[in-house]
Amino acid sequence: MSKLSDLTIAGMRDGLAGKSFSATELAESSITAIEAARDLNAFVTEAPEKALEMARTSDARIAKGEAGPLEGIPLGIKDLYCTEGTLTTASSHILDGFVPGYESTVTANLWGDGAVMLGKLACDEFAMGSSNETSYYGNVINPWRNRGSNKPLVPGGSSGGSSAAVAARLCPGATATDTGGSIRQPAAFTGTVGIKPTYGRCSRWGIAAFASSLDQAGPITRTVRDAAIMLRSMAGHDPKDSTSVDIALPDFEAALTGDIRGMKIGIPKEYRMDGMKAEIETLWTQGIGWLKDAGAEIIDISLPHTKYALPAYYIVANAEASSNLARYDGVKYGLREQGVDITELYEKTRAAGFGAEVKRRILMGTYVLSAGYYDAYYLRAQKVRTLIKRDFEQVFETIDTILTPSTPTAAFAAGEKTDPIDMYLNDIFTVTVNMSGLPAISIPAGLSSEGTPLGLQLIGKAFDEETLFRVGGVLEEAAGFDAAPENWWA
Fold it and tell me: Which residues belong to the active site?
């Protein structure tokens, strides 16, 4: 018999409305699943008492006929989001013991719509990583395994705790963040759906910053419909965030019409990279065929500045990271190492508090912002960013959305990639979206030769997530992806 925690968000919503079970029973089912899956290390902080308290409140609202759009739905929260009264660490030693006295805008929106918090999900330290191997609290393990192997696989990063928890049925949905692919890449690695909304669609207030001009909040779920439901509650204008856009919030779920006849789908030639695995190319070709069979028109396009996106991204992202992480100094909150003076306090705290990858990116960012190299690196990267954005603007004059692979490979083994450059190449299909501020969604579409998930990515026009959901729903149905990881951890 299926557990309640196996249900999707839409399934839970329908069951609660039909009085088939209570919000408290839903929370209890997820809590039991989380306790049985600690080998995955998906949660940094479990919050069972808070979850049950919130669930009981939801049951009372449902009984009064006052249910919100997400009433009683249990969710996991990436540990970058500040949650009032609950430990928030960004998976970093430097924020040990930090309990915020305030709530991030996105999580406040979710609680306002009735959602229930199960706890805080692990991530790469300050969202810096593509495999969830940089967390101070240990690696998150992908619930999927290669066929015939017990070797642990990475769940992707930085939102690996979110993707692993959703794939393992610990929660039906989770918040995540995407700076260069940190929603879409882990979603592809775990057979889940992840959408990175348009920059400015969701507030960044109360979320630990990595690169402020690139970061965007979004959900990871098991279905396209669930992603639409969850994003509607997460999004909205926030006067506390100057980059939050005051624009009408559509009913994303209503966009899933199943009809894409006459829509124009762009296929960028630059995404056919040298050395790309044949199974990725095959899946992409299948995806093109599925959309064509559904009545869409396939159009070859060119995004000529794509080849410059990855190096430009890592210049911009690291420059902003070096600035944003200067606030963590041991004075006001988090870890504090003692020193004979303030300078030594800073030095010892940051040396002990930050991991190797965070230090690497701070050093790189500080270097490209330095007086002698600002024009040669940072300024030039920003010019490249403008050209990438212009490429998208030009092609979107004649097409509705773009179809590409989500990642160049399936999930790889923990410890397999030790070269930072090799790790950064995981973002090769995703960073252009962040550089241009556009929305994109990853949808599970098939299995690799090793029996692990592969995803396809749809890229949309700014603030046109509705088209992504519309086309994504058709792609999801055509792919018919219903595989699930074996429950080896319980």
Answer: 78, 158, 182
